Amino acid sequence: xxxxxFLFLQAHAIYAAGPGDIRxxxxxxxxxxxxxxxxIYPHAAHEKLYKCADCHPKIFKDKHGANDxxxxxxMDGQFCGSPNCHNSPKAFPLYNxxxxxxxxxAAR
Length: 108
Hints:
- The chain is mostly helical and about 110 residues long.
- It has a single domain, classed as Cytochrome C3 (Alpha-Beta Complex).
- The chain contains 5 helices and 2 strands.
- It starts with a helix and ends in a 33-residue tail after the last helix.
């Protein structure tokens, strides 16, 4: 029973943001320090624009928790900051924090 509850809570934490959305909050202390909330990644919206093979496994591994995503890595051209994603003219730039992060505080 405890295992089922754990699996349910894990699935709920991942998809709690809405149908097709993925909540990225595994680095919560770093997010707090930066003054931003978790990222709500709109997977369903990306699925309408791209094929799975455009991102998986080239940019993102297909396993929950297998991608150690951070803003530093994004800014260095990995993950969402890939030259084909938010480090290109195709999409809004990475420094537009409120487009991905929740609860963005004003700059100090």
